[in-house]
Specification:
Elements lengths: L24 H8 L7 H12 L5 H4 L4 H13 L12 H8 L14 H14 L9 H9 L26 H15 L3 H10 L3 H4 L2 E7 L6 E8 L4 E8 L16 H5 L8 E8 L2 H13 L4 H10 L2 H32 L5 H44 L9 H13 L14 E5 L15 E2 L23 E5 L6 E4 L6 E4 L17
């Protein structure tokens, strides 16, 4: 009977895991059978440090407080954006930040990094963002252009030459995530999530292993904190300003805060230094502390990090991340082998369904783009409207402002022009003495006819036909009109505008 071969991979010769002095033999053996020995992100950082020795970015980005905040937030609070079921590991997250995922995913939404930043932006937007295409534009809309993404406030749509998230350095990507996380942490539903999850303040804070004042530097407070679910330790140094304390009480100020100011009681500087982040660094750090184990600092730190449960937790994380990397490589190999085979109808249906989903996603992207653009246009419209509401009558005389107000009331500036130049002159002449001018006697009756404003005088054919008198209608834009009564000898003086009517004015002067 032929024995079957074991599927368990064989351990590599001279694997660093075999030389570890912590952990059980089974844990060291399991780690030695997994690859890679050093993770891709660590290899890349070491390579960049050698290629660019003057660039401090590759030496300090892990010591930045924003980096620590983002990684701890993802460990504890990713359930707020419905990613609690996703596996999180600091090194795997760094691999995604460095774009070192191999093989590259067919869809970017398969990566935790893209899921997280899209979910965070949806919280800020107040509406679900369907795709990463709008990430940069919406981020600039809410956080401005003074960020690593840059941009211009006048941009209404995405520009081809605009900076994308994937084009940034890792420390700049961390800053973008830090801004999003710090913003959503202020929302009321985030506090509700903390209460539901029963995350106490003690659990949210890093575990403090040791804290003491440096005897050589009294203004320096030294702390060792355990972070990232117990897989890394940082050394934190808080530098406080030095205070001069008077020897006598009468020399002390009554109000120290007012006398010294707030700056005297705040920390001048807080720095972080990464002590270890991998099982190999932990082993070296423990051996370093064992040299002077009688010191209080070393003894207190060893009591925590050397516990079997703490060491097993680090081994578990190391094995898990390597198994994930190996499974990705195997999936890529299987996909390459299946690519040469004939596609079945089931696979073709999946491809068709994927294409339809892609088309629907593009439509949703277009709707989101129109939504964000309309919001930006509405904001610009309100700004312009507020500018137009300013006083535009400066420099005008009182008469000009009066005409403007009248024009605003009537709807047209021409309607407020009551000058006699728009009047018509109506004269009734005696047919026997048409050339004789009649003076207006003292008993003239002056009648005021209501002015009806219109653009032209209505044409009435009855005015051209009269029985006793000839009615002559002439338009004189500068004089008044006079209607003379030849029977009674009275003159009726009135003013008729172009819109007035002659109905109701008797030719015989009886009225």
């Amino acid at each position: 009977m032929v024995s079957s071969k074991a599927s368990t991979p064989q351990a590599e010769v001279d694997h660093p895991a075999e030389n570890l002095r912590i952990g059980t033999p089974n844990e060291r053996s399991a780690l030695s059978k997994l690859t890679p020995i050093t993770l891709p992100n660590d290899d890349l950082v070491l390579s960049l440090q050698k290629q660019y020795p003057k660039d401090e970015r590759w030496k300090t980005f892990r010591n930045d407080y924003q980096y620590i905040y983002v990684m701890n937030w993802m460990h504890q609070c990713r359930g707020y954006v419905r990613l609690g079921g996703e596996l999180f590991d600091v090194d795997l997250f760094e691999i995604e930040l460095f774009n070192l995922v191999y093989p590259p995913p067919l869809d970017d939404m398969h990566l935790l990094l893209h899921k997280a930043r899209l979910a965070l932006l949806s919280k800020v937007n107040g509406k679900k963002v369907e795709s990463l295409v709008l990430f940069e534009q919406l981020f600039r809309l809410y956080f401005g252009v003074e960020t690593p993404l840059g941009g211009s406030e006048d941009d209404e749509t995405l520009l081809d030459n605009s900076v994308l998230f994937d084009d940034l350095f890792i420390d700049q990507k961390i800053e973008i995530l830090y801004l999003l996380m710090s913003e959503v942490s202020l929302y009321s539903d985030f506090r509700d999530f903390i209460e539901r999850s029963k995350i106490s303040p003690e659990m949210a804070r890093p575990l403090q292993l040791f804290r003491a004042v440096d005897p050589q530097k009294p203004s320096h407070l030294e702390e060792y904190v355990l972070v990232f679910d117990g897989t890394a330790v940082y050394k934190r140094v808080v530098v406080a300003p030095s205070l001069v304390i008077p020897k006598k009480r009468r020399l002390c100020p009554e109000d120290p805060e007012e006398a010294f100011g707030e700056e005297a009681f705040d920390a001048e500087k807080i720095t972080y230094e990464l002590v270890y982040k991998s099982i190999f660094d932990l082993d070296a750090f423990i051996e370093e502390l064992k040299v002077n184990r009688n010191k209080k600092k070393n003894r207190l730190i060893l009591e925590v990090i050397k516990k079997p449960a703490a060491v097993s937790n680090v081994f578990e994380y190391e094995n898990r991340k390597r198994r994930i990397l190996m499974s990705r490589r195997k999936e890529n190999e299987m996909a390459r082998l299946l690519a040469t085979r004939k596609k079945s109808s089931r696979l073709e249906a999946k491809v068709k369904q994927r294409n339809e989903e892609e088309q629907e996603r593009k439509l949703r992207e277009l709707e989101d783009l129109q939504y964000s653009t309309s919001r930006r246009s509405q904001r610009n419209y309100h700004i312009l409207e507020n500018k137009l509401k300013s006083d535009f009558t400066a420099g005008l005389s009182r008469g000009e402002r009066l005409n403007l107000r009248k024009g605003a009331n009537f709807g047209d500036e021409e309607l407020v022009d009551f000058s006699p130049s728009r009047a018509l002159t109506v004269e009734i002449e005696d047919p026997e003495d048409a050339n004789t001018s009649h003076a207006v006697p003292s008993n003239d009756i002056e009648v005021t006819v209501p002015t009806i404003q219109c653009d032209a005088l209505p044409q009435n054919p009855d005015f051209e036909k009269t029985n006793t008198n000839d009615v002559k209608i002439t338009q004189d834009l500068k004089s008044l009109s006079a209607i003379h009564d030849t029977n009674n000898g009275h003159s009726i003086v009135t003013q008729i505008t172009p819109n007035s009517t002659l109905n109701g004015i008797s030719q015989d002067g009886a009225n």
